[in-house]
Automatic annotation (TrEMBL):
PANTHER family, A to Z: DUF1015 DOMAIN-CONTAINING PROTEIN, LMO2823 PROTEIN
Protein name: DUF1015 domain-containing protein
Taxonomic superkingdom: Bacteria
InterPro entries on file: UCP033563 (IPR008323)
């Protein structure tokens, strides 16, 4: 099923390795404005390639890339490799450190209808277009998307554990997460990675916009190339792979902020009554714990008041969508259908284009935006179970956009993968056993 290849990676020059913490950056869709300002002040931070500035940002990124190559700020590794990537982290109240183990490789940019790479959520159209433009201009990927594969035997873990003992980088990132990167160049071991993945589906955990951009770019380049073979660099995409059956996968909730909604608090509560059980709360601090205990429960936060709302269980049968039960029962599907569509009047098929909805992972920031009047109100959500994500993917259907937040996020700038033919070309048959 999934064809993967090692990466002939571009990396910061070894002389800059000691400064790698100053050169990496958060992913384009999670970097805050304050973080951006600090990162842009460093002229060789990877953000200049992942979230470029200026009136013509994609051309700026292209010029920056050529400049960095000319000055050997970035150098390409001589050989392709599998890049082992471990992230060590703790949650509040967690004593034992968790480690998410994975590796970075190239994967063929399969169309969704090929059912090799499976998606679990919708995308936001503008973000996809931005990623296509940037890939077209630079032909380089500064961060991997995140894919999951299912391997109950954990066949690849011993090779990754051995490689990580000799890291290229070992740093602390903006999340406080320890990030460790190593590489495997041994062709026999690399062939084992390719062999394991060739029998697997890959579930896209994070990076739907970047992956859709890669599909669109592949189609565009295929149409322009009369000698297309399917082996060119533009057919591939950089991805970070983790075992979905690992115990250290974490999914955090992403809350919803609503802007410029022309409904008063009382009107919203009135419209909620046919669908939801409503309970006013005395303390907004209780909200996460209260909604955690019940299916289809959410927090509804206004500037002065807070409520717990829960779908009346029998109403689930009134969801008039031709989708499997496993998708209907996901909390985020319930929220987007019954609350955003039926109560607020933003149709389900228009929500991914709506400028009335923002997405915020941090609960404090979410509450603060409501208190300051930046947002009309917020809906607080809880995380989606990993089993639900797998079930939705295998159903062939998707959840609403920004339904999951896999933690920790990967970094931009640890390695760069070029799909330009002069950088990509290599006799990859040597790794296919």
């Amino acid at each position: 099923m999934a064809e993967i290849l090692p990466i002939k990676a571009w990396r910061y020059h070894d002389n800059l390795g000691r400064k790698i913490e100053e050169l990496t950056s958060p992913l384009f869709d999670v970097v805050s404005q304050k973080q951006r300002e600090a990162l842009y002040s460093n002229p060789i931070n990877s953000i200049h390639l992942s979230v470029p500035l200026g009136p013509d940002p994609v051309q700026n990124a292209s010029r920056t890339l050529e400049n960095w190559k000319d000055k050997e700020i970035l150098k390409q590794d001589d050989l392709p490799g599998i890049y082992v990537y471990y992230q060590y982290f703790k949650f509040p109240g967690q004593e034992e450190e968790s480690c998410r183990k994975g590796f970075i490789a190239q994967i063929r940019a399969y169309d969704w209808d090929e059912k090799v790479v499976l998606r679990h959520e919708n995308t936001i159209a503008k973000a996809v277009n931005d990623r296509i433009d940037l890939l077209r201009a630079t032909q380089i990927q500064s961060s991997p998307t995140h894919g999951l594969y299912e391997d109950p035997l954990h066949e690849l873990e011993p090779y990754m554990d051995e490689a990580i003992e000799d890291p290229i980088y070992d740093l602390e990132d903006y999340q406080g997460v320890r990030e460790v990167l190593a590489v495997i160049h041994d062709a026999n071991i690399i062939s084992k990675f390719l062999k394991v993945l060739e029998s697997k589906h890959v579930i896209l955990a994070d990076g739907h916009h970047r992956y859709e951009g890669a599909i669109a770019f592949r189609k565009e380049m295929t149409g322009k190339n009369p000698d297309h073979t399917g082996q060119e660099g533009y057919n591939y995409h950089m991805m970070y792979f983790t075992n979905a059956l690992s115990k250290n996968l974490r999914i955090l909730p992403t809350h919803r902020l609503f802007l410029n909604i022309d409904l008063a608090e009382g009107e919203i509560l009135q419209k909620l009554e046919p669908w939801f059980i409503i309970k006013k709360l005395n303390d907004v601090e209780e909200i996460s714990e209260l909604i955690l205990q019940r299916k289809w429960a959410f927090g509804l936060i206004f500037s002065e008041n807070a409520y717990k709302i829960r779908l009346i269980p029998e109403k689930i049968h009134e969801m008039q969508l031709s989708i499997p039960e496993v998708v209907k029962e996901v909390d985020m599907m319930v929220l987007h259908y019954f609350f955003i569509d039926k109560v607020l009047g933003v149709p389900l098929d228009k929500q991914r284009f709506s400028d009335k909805i923002e997405y915020e992972r941090n609960l404090r920031r979410c509450l603060g935006k409501v208190e300051k009047g930046i947002a009309s109100f917020a809906v607080i959500t809880k995380d989606v179970a990993m089993t639900q994500v797998l079930d939705v993917c295998k159903s062939g259907f998707t959840m609403p956009q920004k339904s999951t937040y896999f933690y920790p996020k990967t970094l931009s700038g640890l390695i760069f993968a070029s799909v330009a033919e002069e950088d990509f070309a290599f006799p990859y048959q040597a790794f296919k056993g």
